Amino acid sequence: MRNYMREYSQRPEVKVKEKSRRANYRSQSDVKIARKVYLKMYRQTDKFKTRTRFYYHNSGQKEKQRNYRSRPEVRSRYNSISSVAQGKRRLRVPMWQTADEKKQIQLFYQFCPIGMAVDHIVPLCGKMVSGLHVLSNLQYLTPEENSRKRNHYPVSGRPKE
Predict the structure, then answer these.
(1) 97: pLDDT strictly greater than 60
(2) pTM, 2 dp
(3) CA geometry: angle at 31 spanning 27 and 34, to 5°?
């Protein structure tokens, strides 16, 4: 096998091919090295530093402006609504609930099908009744059905509000 390789490499057409391959490789590596040196030097300049500082500072601001919830007039209202909802949910967690049941509730939320929302069958803070934040009180509904239901729970003998 080695003799064959040696004989193959001694052929004139193979020598020419090998010589051009090596020259091409050298020129490519020289270009790569020159580019690395240039970038290293360029990154140390003030022009580069000010451009990157400006870009990173402004790109974050533009993203925040595009995000509706981060607008100052909306943010305070959204934060207060979400914190109130979280507080009410915490109040409705029973003392006897085990860590395993809490994990099951987390999994129920985690594996919610796409296009569905998790809903409490008996609302956490309804006018007539209030439910608990337990697994047996959770169900999947479409967002339209969930918003239509709101905090209402049909109580027998009472007209629907």
Answers:
(1) yes
(2) 0.44
(3) 135
